[in-house]
Write a structure and sequence with these properties.
Layout lengths: L8 H8 L2 H10 L7 H12 L6 E5 L5 H10 L2 E6 L2 H13 L6 E5 L13 E7 L8 H11 E14 L6 H11 L7 H10 L2 E8 L1 H17 L2 H7 L4 H19 L3 E10 L1
Parallel strand pairs: 1-2, 1-4, 2-3, 4-5
Antiparallel strand pairs: 5-7, 6-7
């Protein structure tokens, strides 16, 4: 896997504090992950999330994942995110939905030590977010630390697909998406095992992911062109360039070179 040393949290903060973050919300909704509600429901059900549990969302973005879990599974949530603007919006939206008493948010680089005692949470959650992290191993180690014995880690993420990317393909996609790198399925399994987890599910969702990329491109070209152009200052040249990068991602997804994985594991 090719890692880009020049992409850091600052790049992600800038992207999600400006037009790029608004564009992703436009085509993916508040949850900002492939599959939306359906994907979240499948992950939560397979992970065995139940009422009364206390969860930690790492990379909570607009807080929609936390709100989804509180409303549909009766849990309480804590969200950590490294982008101040996203965190402020998350707090505002939780309050607007009357959920502020069930969710707390903290500004936090999720690859640094968390402000929680060992064994605080019943489950750790993440949805299509950890691809933005330079050091995914630190996150998984901290997740293990703050989970209770027997606690669950459940997440989806964009991954390098089974066919693998060339260095040139990886550099192009990661530069466009502001990813330091994409882990692959075996890599995540290894990181989980090294940090005291027993993997109960590791599923490659690459074919399904490819269809979602096609869907997002169609939405931008057939329905939301005006809205997207408004977000980027009516810059048609930029819109077309971004469309080209998304088309390239769709091509690589259909080739099995990049995709999405679902992972669930239990702390020993």
């Amino acid at each position: 896997m090719k890692k880009l040393e020049n992409i850091t949290l600052k790049d992600v903060q800038e992207a999600y504090s400006g037009p790029e973050g608004l564009l992703w919300e436009l085509i993916m909704g508040e949850q900002i992950h492939a599959g939306g509600f359906k994907s979240s429901m499948t992950l939560a059900q397979k992970a065995g999330i139940k009422a009364g549990m206390k969860g930690l969302d790492l990379g909570s973005a607009l807080g929609a994942g936390c709100r989804f879990l509180v409303k549909n599974f009766g849990v309480t949530m804590t969200g950590l995110d490294g982008t101040p603007r996203m965190l402020n919006w998350a707090k505002e939206r939780a309050a607007a939905e009357g959920l502020a008493d069930k969710i707390e948010f903290h500004l936090q680089d999720v690859t640094e030590k968390y402000p929680f005692a060992d064994g605080t949470f019943d489950f750790v959650w993440g949805e299509d977010t950890w691809c933005y992290l330079v050091d995914k191993g630190v996150l998984i180690a901290e997740a293990a630390r703050v989970l209770k014995p027997g606690g669950i880690i459940a997440f989806t993420d964009w991954i390098e697909g089974p066919a693998g990317l060339t260095d040139e393909e990886a550099e192009r996609i990661n530069t466009f998406m502001k990813f330091p790198y994409m882990e692959n399925q075996k890599g995540y399994e290894k990181l989980l095992a090294e940090n005291g987890f027993t993997v109960t599910e590791s599923t490659d969702l690459t074919p399904e992911f490819a269809e979602y990329v096609d869907f997002y491109i169609k939405m931008l070209t057939d329905q939301f062109t005006y809205d997207a152009l408004k977000i980027i200052g009516d810059d048609m040249e930029l819109f077309q360039a971004m469309g080209g990068e998304m088309a390239f991602m769709a091509e690589k997804a259909h080739e099995g070179k990049m995709g999405k994985g679902r992972f669930i594991a239990r702390k020993h």
